[in-house]
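Deviations from the work plan: none for this task. Representative record:
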Amino acid sequence: MNATMGRYRAVTGHRLFWPAAVLVVMLAANTIYRPGFLSIELKDGHLYGSPIDILRLSAPLILVALGMTLVISTGGIDLSVGSVCAISGAIACMYISKQPDQNSLAVVLAALAMAFGVALVLGAWNGVLVAVIGIQPIIATLILMVAGRGLAQLITQGQIITINSEPFRAIGLGHLLTLPLAIFIALAAALVVAAFTRRTALGMIVESVGGNAEASRLAGIRSGRVVFLAYVLSAACAAIAGFMMTANVSSADGNAVGLWVELDAILAVVIGGTSLAGGRFFLSGTIIGALIIQTLTTTVYAMDISPQTSLLFKAVVVIAVCLIQAPAFRARFTRRRRNVPTPNAIADKPKEQVPA
Amino acid sequence: MTTGSLTAGRARLRLPRRQIPVLATLALLLVMYGIGVSQYTAFSNVQVIFNVFIDNGFLLVVAIGMTFVILTGGIDLSVGSVVAMTAMVSAWLLQEGLPAALVLVIALLIGPTLGLLMGCAIHFFEIQPFIVTLAGMFFARGMCTFISGSSIPITDGFWTRISQERIGDPRGNFVSISVLIAFVVVAVAAYTLAYTRLGRNVYAIGGNPQSALLMGLPVGRTRIAVYTISGLCSAIGGILLSFYTLSGAPLIAVGMELDVIAAVVIGGTVLTGGSGYVFGTVLGVLVLGVIQTLITFDGSLNSWWTKIVIGGLLFAFILLQRLIGIRYK
């Protein structure tokens, strides 16, 4: 009995349990509502089906959320990722649209390299503001979030740039080994980030900076450099995500690309169990978080509810996941279940501390 | 000796450090207005200033609520959506034939209720304000489209009368009733922050929540109160917006929270809390309004320049706050 309880505790106590449970419940609900939901079929050598769609569409969000995880882990936040998506997509499309042969691979690669370079510069700008000048991250990146939208529109001159380039389109809609290429790109990025943070000391350094930047600095870690790198990486991930978003529709719209993706990404990170206060980070949790958000969006579309109303469901899921993860809420809940007559500890905590 | 030279330095400076950002904003506003007047003859018309107030009255009210929240070191991302939801609910209830007074009361209750709930979630469950108000933002925006997918016009007599009422001098310069309401909100907020116990608590919590707690100040109650106040201001802002547009639209005021936060920061309030004034926020909103007016007057500049300029100004003001050494985390 005790062993079973212990095992039960170990499973429910695992940091990935609740996010994964939410994802499974959502998939199950979908399958009940629409029995064909989980079926996958092979057509023209490509796999098709709702689960594949969810994976493909969540690829940009996974990318953005990966970078965001590291930034949040250093105790910061990056609000500018949506604007960086828009700018990188706009630059790539603008360059390709000006070339005589839009289908040439060299042109597309040059466009991607240029847009990626600009994104790195934008990331470095954020990094300098936060790490060198010492501005609070939320406001430092708010600058680029507001101004970046304007810059993206400036690049496209307020137009929607449509291009007709097969190699570029492949980033969003191409296939590799029967699966969408976007999935592999996101997966590769996740593996690279995971390898660098978990196979080297980098991950631990990032966590230590997030835990206490000053103490880490005194321990010999160049905190500033780590924070700077996190913002550059976040912008790089956002740029690739921006390519995917624009490639999906073969056009760049400075206003709409990556709109609110920063909020979705932050949600994915928080759902995945990384604390907004910084410190420990969980890449696998972030990926599950991104999948949850995309599944929710797809579900709402499938149920014929207007996309805007899906925000209602998002709000409910956010609050539910955050409440489940909040230590204060858990403590209260478990105490009540055990029937120990302790008056609500949180409300009384201030009063206890007063005489001290 | 050291103290002597220090006091001498202080005496020469004269300006209290806390007020430098506000004064800088004031200077910027005057310079921008000066540029406008020197470039465009029509700019010197008093009505231009009145129009800035008429067009930004609702923004001003919402920014006042946000000032309270930011002063405690929090943030409220839900304001834009709450504004839209309030306008939407009033339009919908009026369409259903409810009397205007009742609609007004209901609309004014929704915002504070949501704010109260968010404040409770932030205080009792210790969830980050950013996440809680983000959920509030999603919820309110979702409610808008839940009520109606398209815009609802307002034809109610009371609403149209207030919307068309012009208060002005014989020369034809006028302001709308909304502007007067916004001024009342500003006055009440300024008094509350400067002269009441609640106002002092707000500054104390923003300065250092731990010290405030040890001093025996009601940290929890104050924190919940500021989110409720922000909700109330958003609700008033929503009503003003419905006076202004005479409709409720599900996608109105999208991204408004960014403008509001930008206005508060440009107005000199420090995002970590504890330092800032209502008057600064008024100036911040005016700066945003004058930028828009300048760009409209110019005609050759496109609307995206507004965003780029606001971003640049944000950067300049944050750098200024940094240089004069106001405490940052």
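The CA atoms of residues 148 and 250 of chain B lie 7 Å apart.
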